[in-house]
Amino acid sequence: MQKNKGILTVVSGFSGAGKGTIMKALMQAHSETYALSISATTRAPRTGERDGIEYFFKSREAFEQMIADDALVEYAEYVGNYYGTPKAYVEEQLARGKDVILEIEIQGALKVRRQFPDALLLFVTPPSAEVLKNRLIGRGTETMDVIEHRLARALEEAEGLEEYDYLVVNDVLEEAVREVHEIIQNEHYRVARNADKIREMRNELKGFTRQ
Amino acid sequence: MQKNKGILTVVSGFSGAGKGTIMKALMQAHSETYALSISATTRAPRTGERDGIEYFFKSREAFEQMIADDALVEYAEYVGNYYGTPKAYVEEQLARGKDVILEIEIQGALKVRRQFPDALLLFVTPPSAEVLKNRLIGRGTETMDVIEHRLARALEEAEGLEEYDYLVVNDVLEEAVREVHEIIQNEHYRVARNADKIREMRNELKGFTRQ
């Protein structure tokens, strides 16, 4: 089937749900299909980070100009730095037929949906809250205070879960990657995304029945 | 992931789109997952047809009693015989966690959706109207009059296409079967179908953050 326009997918999930790992595996397996959205930020590049690859690095002035120009799908300020999603990059990739993936938290996800009403929203969770807690503890890098803060944050994020389209349970990584891939690819078969094909088929049928 | 309730899927499509072949292949490949809905009819059994397998064979009186009892999801009269979908069978299979498939035309599909608002509606088409025409001609069993009548009927059915959720293009059979299977199985991950799991996760998180 001829491929329609690319699909914009927003992936959110609890910290510790493994969404970063899923995204990385998805990109490696299907690099021709997907484009990962690149964020713009005013924070300084860390060692090894390249402009236009990990982030678009911007001055505060340039970032605020993007805000004024409505050139960002969404943005937020975090610990004194701006982070946002440049609209032009997303639109270019979609027009090229790439399925664009945005990894972003829930407030950003809802802003994206307002600007791209046919965006697909996926939420990644571990199999249970117990598993989430154990994964956070298991990292061994966080104090119990931080872990409890993360769990409280997870509870807050769970409040918005009904706004999402699909719930992906990350139990076995390869299965979660396959699920995310199938969900996005099947979305191309949605009737609403095939208006052109349907119109074409109708016109063809009309031609036959008129003869 | 623990499986939720079965999903009711309605499959429609143009005559000659190959939906019967897709359904047969799907059932053979995943007989544990799916249950094909069995129609009730007042027409006489043909040689080899068994009650409760190909059809539930009913007297006209019994069928009209089912109509009066609201025991049918939908029904229609065709060439002097009733055909309908018994509600009890569909509901039993769904409760057992089976994904139930109903092969039915468009008017019936819309009646099903009214009674089962979360039914999934798939429409099967050939790759183009040209291919549809050639398939009908290629069968060699129909006069051109019949073929033209079928194409006119296809045009009528295409009018309702926007009511469906997914468009499945049957070009290569195995791919169409895989698509239908993936579309139905991914539907289990819809947020709206996982309300219990989400509530459970929230309660668990609440328990952790209260400690």
UniProtKB/TrEMBL annotation, chains A, B:
Give binding positions for ATP. G13, F14, S15, G16, A17, G18, K19, G20
Asked if the keyword Electron transport belongs to this entry, the reply reads no
GO molecular function, one example?
Answer: ATP binding
Q: Which residues form the Guanylate kinase-like domain?
A: 6-185
Q: What is its EC number?
A: 2.7.4.8
What GO terms fall under cellular component here? cytosol
Q: State the Pfam families in the record.
A: Guanylate_kin
* Compartments where found: Cytoplasm
Q: Which reaction does it catalyse?
A: GMP + ATP = GDP + ADP
| Predominant cellular place of this UniProt entry's protein | cytoplasm
Keywords of this protein's UniProt record, alphabetized? ATP-binding, Cytoplasm, Kinase, Nucleotide-binding, Transferase
This molecule's function is given as: Essential for recycling GMP and indirectly, cGMP.
Q: Which NCBIfam families match?
A: guanyl_kin
Return the similarity comment. Answer: Belongs to the guanylate kinase family.
Alphabetical list of HAMAP family matching this protein: Guanylate_kinase
Q: Which PANTHER family match?
A: GUANYLATE KINASE, GUANYLATE KINASE-RELATED
Q: What is this protein called?
A: Guanylate kinase
